[in-house]
Amino acid sequence: MSEQLQPVGVIGVGWVGLVTAACFAELGHQVVARDILPEKVEALSRGEVAIHEPGLEELLRRNAERINFTTDMDELLEGARLLFVCVDTPPTYSGDADLSRVRSVVQELPEGSDHVLVMKSTVPAGTGESIRRDKPDLAYVSCPEFLKEGTAVEDFMHPDRVVIGSDSGDEAAADAVAELYRPLGGEILRSDVASAEMIKLASNAFLATKISFINEIANVCEEVGADVGEVAKGMGLDERIGTAFLRAGIGYGGSCFPKDVSALKMLAGNTGYHFQLLTAVIEVNELQKRRVVGKLEKHLGSLIGKRIALLGLAFKPDTDDMREASSLVLSARLQGEGAEVVAYDPVAAERASGLLSSVEMASSAMEALEGADAAVLVTEWREFAELDWAAAAERMARPLLVDGRNFLEPQPLVDAGFEYEGIGRTVSSPRPAPAP
Question: Which strands, in side-by-side order, build the sheet including 116-119?
Fold first, then answer.
């Protein structure tokens, strides 16, 4: 078999691992994907995919003969030399990254192994050095992932860049990893391991900073009568700034930004450096979710006994991921104010129901809006743009909409009888471009 089509091992078949396995198989590689949960392995072997990611299930089905799911570490080690580690590194109570799953994988590798450990999991800078200190003979390469939920397959197959970090003695291993990615056409950036680890954390922290910044600008716009859509457009035309992630709303969520921003802040703090900017980014993001409550109270007064419909629950469209979703904080805050909360999400409702047991789950947007005193658009699912809002207004007790993502055109909603509240917008605001 040619070097380009060498077999690939994937450790951990969560969202990142499953996308990685499917995409390498699509490129023609034989893939051995290992997970410690037998029920997950058995389900995947039957073709059952538990996560919602556009294009992933089709990719897995098309390449089923190229992917072998297993719980057996020996089978993985026999089947592949390059081992991509895709296990979770969730935050601990202190905010640091929990590396216990990564450490467990490293401990399972036999001494004197000629395998290459390729770190896809997001880890703090210094992790690679620590692993090499424990396993000095282990070939180690950092190759952080930059996938976005909802477009992960496209991101993998058409990357902006592929970062490959290696230290002295591991250049050949890094070369082998680079060859795997070369057919994808993205720029391959070679660096040392610590820099590669920092690139991932710094990238996500910067994007989160842009989101919190434009949300602060939106809040000021509301006070001075400016329109954040126009402000963001004018800012984005400056090539030094760009348009991406300059979309005001109720804050970021998901599995990456909250965790990675916190991890970088703690990484800095553990060295004795206080990362003041990230402290503000986190605070702004938390407060932004709560501003929606204030908007509702401005129109409704007390929320006691009011029926509030949440449209969308997932942290972003085209995924069922509820991790750090704004809907979690918002629903709890509304219920804390005495409101009755009903919600609808076209994909994430089942996953959300286990987290929001006291929230009524509707089977459609129209059902959620029936008799509601107000609605909050939380996730910008396309079907909400196509909803018959005039009919929706007639179903509601009071046609009040807080557009938490600045997703809808305000004027048609006003013409349909709605009281409209966006985030830093005027009623005449044009509809923004789709979020990146």
Answer: 67-70, 31-34, 8-11, 82-85, 116-119, 139-142, 161-165, 187-191
Helix axes 276-300, 257-270, angle to 10 degrees: 140
Strands annotated E in 86-182: 116-119, 139-142, 161-165
CA 349 – CA 199 distance, rounded (Å): 34
Cβ contact 305:374 at 8 Å:
no
Model pLDDT for residues 208-217, shown as the tens digit of each residue: 999 999 999 9
Number of neighbours of residue 324 by Cβ within 10 angstroms: 18
The domain locations on the chain are 8-193, 225-421
CB 433 within 8 A of CB 406: no
Q: Number of H helices and number of E strands within the chain?
A: 18, 14
3-state SS of 365-411 is HHHHHCCCCEEEECCCCHHHHCCCHHHHHHHCCCCEEEECCCCCCHH
Domain spanning 8-193, CATH class: alpha beta
Q: What is the pLDDT of residues 219-246, one digit of tens each?
A: 999 999 999 999 999 999 999 999 999 9
CATH match of 225-421 with 3.20.20.70: no
Q: How many CB atoms lie within 10 A of CB 183?
A: 10
pTM equals 0.90
- Residue 81, both tokens: 């030399």
Hey, which residues does 162 pair with through a beta bridge?
A: 188
Catalytic annotation, residues:
256
